[in-house]
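question for whoever is on the cluster today: can someone run the full assembly for these? two chains, 519 residues total. i dont have access anymore since they changed the login thing
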Amino acid sequence: MSTQSNAPGVLSAIDPDLTDRIVSRRRAIMQGGSVSGVVLAGLRLGSIPVALAALSRDAFGQGRLPTAVSGVLNFALKLEYLESEFYNLGIASGVIPAADRTIFTTIQGHENTHVTFIRNLLGSAARPKPTFDFTAGNGSGAGPFADVFTNYATFLAVSQAFEDTGVRAFKGQAATLQPYKSVLETALTIHSVEARHAAEVRRLRGNFQDNEPNQGWITNATTDIPGTAAVYAGDDNVVHLGIDVTTITPAARKEITEAFDEPLTMAQVLAIVDPFIV
Amino acid sequence: MSAHDNTELTAASGVQSDTASNGRRAFLRSAGLTGAALALAGCSLDGAALFEPAGPTRAMIGPNGSITLDFSTDIDVLNYAYALEQLEAAFYIGVVANAAFATIFAANEQRVLRDVRDHEVAHRDFFAAALGSARIPNLTPAFGAIDFANRLSVLQTARTFEDLGVSAYNGAAKYLASAAYLGVAGKIVSVEARHASAIRDLLNNRSADFAPNAFDMGNTPQAVLTAADPFIVESITAINT
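^ ran it for u. tokens below:
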């Protein structure tokens, strides 16, 4: 796992063996036992040991994951595979200037951790990593982002699209996970990290000057990246819970669209990532 | 520059919501219908969307203004979010309105902070409208410990509030029974995370600080309210969590 060595704090946070040991303890946890403090200390992540232990109780208590949960987790795993390999290859390619390497090794470490974590939750139900074509050429290697690992601007554009898609994708699965409270909370703790990534990459694309459209948030359904309209479709919505927010606040419509991120359905997300999968 | 940059986003915006929501409640009473029934019937009132909360609040207001939120009802989970959005909105209004704002912050930082102010005001007013008559009273900020004329004081407080907001939404989602409410909480929490990332980057540009962990926190209401307590005059507690 040399690719993960760039983010030592994150890599060591979720050790697959430790995760396995916790998952294997599900019976003891169900019977009222508690996860040993030593193991928790080994995991070292504030909310995750608790969430993981609870997840074991909720999701693995019956010996196998509910179909709805494994479906969502495999969907999430596909996106995390996509992101982790993208950053692993991007960092190895040398396309990232030295000044920005910390940003991307941080994101890389997170995405690799997410892959490991979700794979461990799924166990034998985890689907294998697809073969990717990061040019979005469906395997031709000559898609619209053909210079993704040689042209930094293209790399950044694809990164932003992946991160914003990830945010919308996780958000779209919240309702499915709602009955499984611990899984829901764990998914949300990944969802908000993807949003942090998205904001950083968006701002980096504008050299941190925060001029539109290179701000941390999505304005209307605007994108300056050709071919990514579907990633931002519908994000200009201003009606929430039946309330047209433009009618009840002095904030302007543009900022209202920024203030609410919209979900995408699983089908919408799969259509967006399809060109990247061989 | 947005059209309303010269508009002070103060608590006065709550008055607008009051008016709209009082009118709607009066209409609902006279019609003898619930909000849900009206929404299904596709009625409209003065062109505004119709919405009433699914049930009454169980929040208890003490004689000293203290608030007890009952997490066994979705309405009070929304009131919890409303409390935090009130806090954030009041803070950023104070930041942008301070005389030192234009001198202590660079142009790009001002753009971030104005945007965040507007987002938080939109969140606050949205919850006020969604909760209608079931919403808790306006909170009184206690910002005495914040030096609004000091860049670091402002940004560090902003970082605290944004990280707290993210952890609050992440930790409260499991209390929501309504998929619609969960959906709207999800729409907001990722924007709070975008804020947290941007603020953290203003504090330490191009570092790893924008996302310090592979997993964000999901904090209990008790932990969040304890952290928020120094910044709010009214004491808020959570029960049935």
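summary bc i know u wont read the tokens: The two ends of chain A are 24 Å apart (CA to CA). Residues 67-93 of chain A form the longest helix (27 residues).
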